C-alpha cells in the first residue's frame, strides 16, 4: 500500500512537469507556424514555387473566398497561369493554436489582399478572414492541409 501511495504521489508531482513540457512544445510550434504563415503569403506574392511546393501538403484542400476549391496542383497552377495574382498581402491579425505536442496547428487570421486594378482602374482589394490547418510531417516539416477563407464587407470610412 505504501508503494502504491508513493507511486501515486510521484505521478501527481510529475503531471505538472509533463503538462509544462507539452505546453512549451505547443508554444514553440505556434511561433514557428506564425512565421511560416507570413513566409507563405510572401511566397504567393513573389510566385516562389519552390516554397509553395514545400509548404502545401499533397492532399491540400484550398477553398477560396468565392467557394471554389483547388487541390495543391490546381492552386499552384492558378498562380502560374495568372488566375490567382497577388500584388501584396498584408497580415492584419494571426492567431495560432498548436496541438498534439506541436504536431498540428490551427491558424485563424485576417489579411488584406491587393490584386491588379479592375478593368475600370479601381483598386482590387479584398479583406479576408481565413482558417488554416497545418500539420508537421516528420520529413517535410510544417505543411498546409486546409485553407478556408471568407471575404469581409468593405469598410467604409
Automatic annotation (TrEMBL):
Signal peptide feature range: 1-21
Keywords: Signal
Domain DUF4440: 33-144
Coiled coil: none
InterPro entries with a match to the protein in the record: DUF4440, NTF2-like_dom_sf
Alphabetical list of Pfam families matching this protein: DUF4440 (PF14534)
Protein name: Nuclear transport factor 2 family protein
